[in-house]
Sequence to fold (636 residues):
Amino acid sequence: MIFADALAGLGAYVDDPAVLAALLVAVPLGVLAGVVPGLGGKLSIVMAIPFLVGADPTVGAVFLLAMHSVIHTGGPIPSILLGVPGSGPDAATVVDGHPMARSGQAGRALGAALASSCVGGILGALVLALALPLVKPVLLSFGPPEVFMLAVLGITFIAAVSGDRLARGLMVGCIGLLVSFVGMDPIGGVARYSAGQLFLMDGVDLITAVVGLFAIPEMLALMRQQAHHGALPRGGFEERGILEGMLDVWRHRYLTLRASLIGTVIGIIPGLGGDVASWVSYGHAVQSSPRPGEFGKGRVEGVIAPEAANNSKEGGSLLPTLFFGIPGSSGMAVLLGAFVTLGITPGPAMAGQGLALVWTLIWALVLANVLAVAVFLPSAGLLARVAGVSGAAMFPFVLCFALIGTYLSALHWQTFFVLLGFGLLGVALKHHEWPRGPFAIGLVLGTPAEIALHQSLTIWGGSFLLRPLTLVLIALVLASLWQSLRRYRRSGDVHAPDPGLLGVCAGVFGLALVTALRYPAPSSVLPALIAGVGALLALACGVVMLRNRPLSLAPDGAVGWRSHLPALAWLALFVVAVLALGLSPGLPLALLVFHLAARRGGVMRALLAAVAMLVIVEGVFAGILGVSIYRGLVGG
Fold:
């Protein structure tokens, strides 16, 4: 049966040329996005979303997953050649990859990274495929009680892996749940938390919230990056060196296999992400080596292990993302939002009617990693020069596509205010090291959890908590909380939350609780419960913080916030330009001003950037794709 399903998934690429075309286009774009330092998976998905409006769900999902899965195949280029990680998970590759490049072994290091990334990606997909027969019967037995407890487990589990930030993670999850309640109540038909605004009656747009919370902070980080210069090899790389590096993967095949399995397992655990996978695998390579003292000076094993884990974790993280609606990483959180926009609803139902799509996506992981090798080898020299592009030069273009994508997802101009609000929240959470993953879980699973809770109480009453699978999920919730509390007690360095951000959370929970109590039952039950739990958590954190240190009116991060001000100012300018003038000519004009003022580029370069964006908005989106373009408040 498994072979028949696998062949059916592969048949999608033969039967539908659009699916194959999506794969072929996505792979080089993903490799290119990985080469540019700071761009990474989250922002590349944000840039792709506008082009997928109205696309077939299978075509769109294959495109996004294929592009996302090969990001780390391009990441080793800046990591090895320039010593600048393409993204966070690529940092472990710098430790030994860059010393190899300085000693004249750049080709060997790149070859090892390329081959290990390919093997890791394929093994991650294989583990996902082998897990399907085990996961499928469990998921098909899920009913409303299990769906409700799954939402609780998702939030507590991701918060638990945050270590001493457990309370902060739980509060962020509660905020995500409260945001999911915005709009018309699916049970009682009561408008909740909408402040009388019609655009909020359908709820907060998922893409807008996810882009604001996860992508906007990364864009602001791009703004602060300058161009990177290093000893880029002239005339490309020696084929012998790249081939030697690929053969190193075979020589260290058992290390490659172990690192791939480590990355896959870490990917399955929600909230750990690529940073943990790459560094744990690197540490394993050091511990298992007969010459651990040579690491950090140019050992090829220090390149193979993190790169294998980086790509293998994508197959692992796809498991909780698709079947439980729990993103395995922040990149998967953005990908999850894009899937929902395409009409794909992650959850236990994917093991039934959605199984054909699951196999198609598994093949996307395998084929994308193989095609990435074909893209990488002939273009390594060119990609090396792309790695020198500064993040500040990328900032305005990424922001433009984010604004286009959020509008096309929500189709109302008020979404720009929502994007700006969630962007500021995301920057604050990242700056003060609050986990953002629980927010995505609460936002995605909030409405299904509320419906499931209502159905469970209606059918079983309170006894739904005694169902076997529900008891298992309750045990997992308690185990994750217990483990986190043990870690909290053992930690000698517990970071107190920022007083200002904690006060804002307490105010939000208090206002949400008072507002929820005004709604009739059953519309008020879950919002009041979540707001009450959040308020108690905020109160407990406040008491602990006051006991451990005096309240300071000048938070420790006040100075650090100043580094965000220029990027925040440009973000506000772009939003104001779009609100007033529309996507066109608002975005082209904002780009023109940015290049003339911030980049201090020539007038011709600024004009070319503005004209290019005008062609994209009017020619591609409004003309070829035929989508409705927002024309601004000034233009009516």
Q: What stands out?
A: The first strand starts at residue 183 and ends at 184.
